[in-house]
Amino acid sequence: MPGIKKWQYTKGLHEIGNGIYAYLQPDGGWGWSNAGLITGDDSNTLVDTLYDLQLTHEMYKTMQQQVTSHLSIGNIINTHSDGDHTNGNQLFPEATIIASKSTAEEMRHAVPPQVMADMLKKAPPQAPIRKRLGAFDFNGISQRFPTETFDREKNIVVGEKQVRLLEVGPAHTLGDTLAYLPKEKVIFTGDIVFAEAHPVVWAGPISNWITACNTILALDIDVVVPGHGPITDLSAVEKLKNYFLYIFDEASKRYQAGMSALDAAYEINYDMFASWKNSERMIPNVMAVYRDLSTTPEPENVHTIFAWMDQWEQRHQEG
Ligand SMILES: [Zn+2]
Questions:
Q1: Ligand 1 center from residue 8 Cα (angstroms)
Q2: From which domain of life does this come (predicted)?
Q3: Buried b (16+ CB within 10 A) or exposed e, 138-153
Q4: Cα–ligand 1 centroid distance for 94 (angstroms)
C-alpha cells in the first residue's frame, strides 16, 4: 500500500484506490469539510455532502468529470448532523440517505440553514461570523433528512465493496458514524478525526471520543479520510487520542481547583499541538471536560461559546 504522502492536500477529488475517492477542501477550517465517493455499479455512495449547494454541485461535477459522466448516486451516508456534511443532500432527491438514528434526530433540531443565512445577512461587515462563514451561501437550502436509520452498526454493500457503518457517538455530535471498508483498509471518519487541527467537542463525553479512537486504532486501516484536513493514517488517530487524554487531565486539575473553564482554556499549555489549526477550540473542549465532570452541568449557549472563541482569536492575533 502506498504511503499517505501520495495524496496532496489540494482541493478536489483524490483517488484512494479501487474506486474509492476523497474530496478535499483545504484548509479544513470551519465549514471546509471533506467528503467521499465509493463507486459500485448503480449504488455509488457519497460519504457526506458539503456546506452549501454550490460547493456540493461543484463536487458532483468534478466527480462526473473524473469518474464517469453518468454518475448516479444511490446512497448518501451522513457521518453526522452538522450542516457542512449534510446541507448538500437536497441535490440528490433520489438517493437513500443513511445515518444513525441519533444523527437523524439531531438534524431535525439543528439551526436551519435559512436562519444561518438570515444571521449572516444581518451581521455587520466586521462581525466574526462573516469571517468564519461568509464564504458559504445558506440561501435556498431545504434540508433532506435521512431516509434510512440504524442503531450502532449497519453493513451496506456498494457494488462489490463491503462498507461497515459504526456509530461511535455521542462525541463530536450525538450520533457520529464511521464508514469503514475492511477489504480496502480505508476509513471515512467524519468529524471524529480532524487532521492537523484541534477537534471540537460539541456533544461529548470525551471518554466516548477516546473510545472511538481506540475502536479505529483496533481496525486494520491504511488510509484515514478525516472530516477536515489532509488524508492521513492511524498516526493522526493516535495523536488525537493523546490530545484528549492530555486536555482531560489538565482541565480536570483546574476543575478540582475551582478555576473557571474559560480561565483553564487560556492557561493550559498546548505547545505540543502548536502546529494544529483552530486553537480557539480549546474553549469548547475544556468546557466539555467540565461538563463531563460536573454532576449539575450548566446549559451552554452556542452563541456565547462562539463569542469566546472570537475573543480568543483576537487576543492571539494581537499578541
Ligand atoms: Zn465538519
A1: 20
A2: Bacteria
A3: beebebbbbeebbeee
A4: 24
